[in-house]
Amino acid sequence: MKKTSTAKAANAANTATEQLKESIIKHLHSTLGTDVNKASHQAWWRATCAAVNEQVFDGLRNTQRTHYEQDTRALHYFSLEYLMGRMFSNNLHNLGIYQNAKQALAELGLDIADLEQQEEDMALGNGGLGRLAACFIESLATLNYPAVGYGIHYENGLFQQSFQDGRQIERPDSWREYGNPWEICRPESVQEIAVYGYVETVFDLQGQMKKVWHPGRIIKGVPWDIPIVGYDGSAVNVLRLWESRASDFFNWDVFNSGGYIDAARENVEAENISKVLYPNDETDAGKELRLIQQYFFCSCSLKDIIRRYKRRHGDDWSHFGKQVVIQLNDTHPAVAIPELMRILVDRAEMAWDDAWAICQQVFAYTNHTLLPEALEKWPLRLFEKVLPRHIEIIYEINRRFLLEQVEMRWPGDDAKKRKLSIIEEGHEQMVRMGHLSVVGSFKVNGVAEIHSKLVKSDLFPEMVALWPDKFTNVTNGVTPRRWLKACNPRLATLLDAKVGDDWPTDLKKLHKLADFAKDPALQDNFMAIKQQNKADLAREIKKLTRIEVDPAALFDVQIKRLHEYKRQHLNLLHILALYRRILQNPDYDMVPRVFLFGAKAAPGYKLAKEIIYAINKVADKINHDKRVKNRIKVVFMPNYRVSLAEKMIPAADVSEQISTAGKEASGTGNMKLALNGAITVGTLDGANIEIAEEVGADSIAIFGLTVDEVKALYESGYNSYDYYHNNPELKAILDWLETDYFTPGKPGELAAIKRSLLQGGDPYLVLADFESYLAAQQKVDTWYRDKALWAEKAILNTASVGKFTSDRSIEDYVERVWQLKPCQIKK
Ligand code: Z15
Questions:
Q1: Which residues carry this modification: N6-(pyridoxal phosphate)lysine (predicted)?
Q2: Pocket residues for ligand 1 (CB within 6 Å)?
């Protein structure tokens, strides 16, 4: 019996492989216009994508038909960022045809790995927030939830990074210069949106006052659909990204009046809206173009949702709140709230209260940070210029909020009104997008337990007093399909054998592994896989940087955007301490370590760029110093991005999660690294706290001040000089940065870091946590010397982090916020 079914499966796989092969060759001929004898890897890759798309599009049509027929309630995820990375292997894995494709290509004389490398990353995001959106839409499809992702079809993704003499150089990322095989243009769903102009007050025949917005400019939004394939299921959802173009009708007018040059200029200006992704992470851009980007995609998306709704329900708005829920990924799309009000009140002529009731049924808001520099505020004057009708609507939302909520609760308390007003008073009036988001949403969530607590206690305490049930937590998660199965195939195969092959959709199954954590056979297999992954990465490091590293060394990895609060410079101080100890004691005994960094700095963030420069200069010195005898290697990997993360994460022994407690909302890299068997060196911040709870205190190296201790220290008056003067090793290291030791002939080139930590007041308490950090690293060193002990801890990490699948995050959102039902897709 068993034999026959295995044989049948093998036959099915054979036919699937044969069909794929035929389809690839067919597309090589008819889509790519080339043939097997002269096709480049690029052409083979594109032909394979086209073959895969035959199945993707089948799933897409089935899913869209089923959703339409069943008139399902759907989630609409609004995000300025989606960090998709590459789609090729993800689509193959999720369709369940990766092995067939690998076989088919092998029979054609091709290595699937070579083709995977042909794809440009789709880097339409900065960091955690954008990658979270990508994991979420994949989980939504996997769990069969009706959902659409909405965003911007940026012509240029996040800049490409290189180093010149250690300094970051940015170059544009024209990721789709030669076309993107995964996207479909939908001219039939084009939208037109308005900006600028003025508002006229008119009275209709009944004497009713009405507001009429006379726009200054019309812009066309062209939708591009990216199919999102669910794992092992039949659902294929859509990521719909809007590209801006000059409106035909507007251009035509100008053209007719003889203004050819003007028309061309208008074209350029309209197309600028979707030209570039703003490269700042956790800082407010505050630029006119950015506001227009936000409004452009929100307006296009809302009109798209309404068009689809009207197809079923005509002008009957009574079901809208039941059919539509919109998740705002941070405040970036918050202008959707006044835009929906405008559409309902001005266009659908609905009474304000009815329109507001709908808004409050539809919007939910996720907060991703407490950092004041990331909380969006728009100068009121700018808002008025770009969106003259929306600012009036915001005034009215605010007027009613202050009167009906704040005044009712705290009568006569003007300080409360000032604090809670959506409009910030002061030298320059500002629109507070966080306040607007809370007032306009029915749910507000933070992204890890501690962060959600701080959102309530520190950011919006009065809002909690007004609406205690509005606030909730959904701890972030990551998709185990990309972040284990696809990126770490060796470990995935071992897990299939040990716990069964359903762990990708049921990650708690990995728990079974914990029973064997002490089993020498499993330990050997697990660590042999880590070793092979490290050897692969060592080759990649050599290729990218010319630096040679020993795969037997401990691989210590810090990968994330560069930011002071993430404290890459604390990591650097540890490296300098070890280096100095080696110079002082040539026999200094330490486990050989490779310190690996990956990080982009926002182009305008001076100190972040200085930190990159310092790490590169220190790396250069240490890597060439014979006295070090390879005990330390330092590698700053250029152009960190999703596809590079996929190579680094499976090879990590140690995961650096060292933000100042209270500053990292959650972190998601921490989850990916632990899942792949890395041991966390981390503070009690964000999701580290929940990771520590899951893996247990013995399998993580926690250090540093807690959130409460950080608060107390700030309040008591933190003085970083105390730490400088009381710790001779720390003092020596910081003084070292001022010499020309790492920049021969150019003293002071690395001094900016020291300055920020002393004169600058050390806002992120680097010096306060230094000693404790070094102690944690010493502990890691000791653990690593005992191979069995280390293997056990690594296995326990993989076994224990099932909670952090994005499937669990999505189920939490469904239960606490979205109230969706899964929809099985008919083939
Ligand atoms: C961003 O990537 C995050 C927060 C932000 O406010 C912005 Cl603008 C960008 C990150 C958080 O820093 C990180 O802790 C969190 O895990 C991630 O969002 C996803 O929630």
A1: 672
A2: 126-129, 132, 281-282, 330, 368-369, 374, 447, 476, 664-668, 686
